[in-house]
């Protein structure tokens, strides 16, 4: 939950073997996270929802 909202979306802008790059519309900033962290969150979301939806964190 981000600022009392249950959903938060990111716009993926690029990637390489070690990092995922994205824009965060909530903050208006460019950021990155490790590919390992991205796939962890993606896998958790897929398991919880039973489908592929937008990634939240």
From TrEMBL:
This is Peptidase C39-like domain-containing protein. Gene3D superfamilies: Cysteine proteinases. InterPro entries: Peptidase_C70_AvrRpt2 (IPR022118). It holds the Pfam family Peptidase_C70. It comes from Lactobacillus leichmannii.
């Amino acid at each position: 939950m981000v600022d009392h909202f249950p959903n938060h979306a990111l716009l993926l802008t690029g990637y390489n073997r070690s990092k995922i790059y994205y824009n965060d519309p909530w903050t208006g900033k460019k950021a990155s996270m490790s590919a390992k962290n991205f796939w962890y969150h993606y896998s958790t979301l897929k398991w919880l929802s039973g489908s592929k939806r937008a990634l939240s964190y």
